[in-house]
Write a structure and sequence with these properties.
alpha/beta
Length: 255
């Protein structure tokens, strides 16, 4: 089967392309240039700058084995929703669009590829939607809501029918950066197989639970939220806390 990959330019996004290529003939890759988010917070806070530096260092460790080469034609764009990008993509002979890490896709994408755009959302939908949704469960001291969601793309943010969810394999002594980056890697590893099962009609999309959840916004990220998140996990969850988290997660009855 043939795939078009829509992603961004970080190391994790390059790994995503490589993993999709394990199961698909990747016709092309469109990389949306990564934007400099949280500019104001970085400018005003040494703590925030250190946080992003630590996360970047851990990403290098977690994805150090990503090959340098690309697997297909790569187009780098500044706007994934530019009409010329969508028109070009719609002329490709593909079975599925694999989506991870771009801006929110607008209606023309969804119209061009109905029920064929599968998104990897770094958050446990519908409880955490929006921006930095792996961060906020730490800030909320609610690690039972740590997870990622593979779902069909729809117009409402992170609200499409769910194909699969992935939760972290928590280990004592792992800090925030280790937990979150390993969860991202595990989710990317799982993604291609989930999409294959969906396309072969061996996996039925499930409507998201009707809960209000939390819409996470970039503007809410500040020193206080960061301090809460890092102090919550500290140098790692204890075995007792991991057991509590796992028991609480079971109550969510996730498919």
């Amino acid at each position: 089967m043939k795939a078009l990959v829509l992603t961004s330019t970080s190391l994790r996004h390059r790994f995503f392309v490589q993993q999709v290529a394990r199961c698909f003939d990747v016709a092309a890759v469109v990389c949306e240039q990564k934007r400099n988010y949280y500019v104001k917070q970085r400018e005003e806070s040494e703590i925030v700058r250190a946080h992003f530096a630590h996360n970047g260092a851990q990403e290098l460790i977690c994805f150090k084995d990503v090959p340098e080469g690309q697997v297909a034609r790569v187009e780098t764009v500044s706007d994934i929703n530019a009409p010329e990008v969508i028109q070009w993509a719609s002329r490709l002979d593909i079975d599925v669009v694999c989506l991870f890490g771009t801006s929110i896709l607008k209606t023309p994408w969804l119209s061009a590829f109905p029920d064929r755009i599968v998104n990897l959302h770094l958050g446990l939908s519908p409880w955490y939607r929006g921006s930095a949704t792996l961060f906020w469960p730490f800030a909320d001291a609610a690690a039972e809501f740590l997870g990622t969601t593979i779902h069909l793309a729809v117009e409402k943010v992170d609200a499409g029918a769910i194909l699969h969810r992935i939760r972290p394999k928590l280990q004592p002594g792992e800090n925030y950066y280790q937990i979150s980056n390993q969860l991202i890697r595990d989710s990317i590893d799982a993604f291609p197989g989930v999409v294959v099962r969906y396309l072969e009609n061996n996996l039925s999309p499930q409507a998201q639970e009707k809960v209000a959840g939390r819409i996470c916004r970039k503007a809410d990220f500040d020193d206080a939220a960061l301090a809460r998140a890092l102090s919550y996990v500290g140098d790692g969850f204890s075995p007792q806390e991991i057991q509590r988290i796992e028991e609480a997660a079971k109550c969510l009855c996730l498919p």
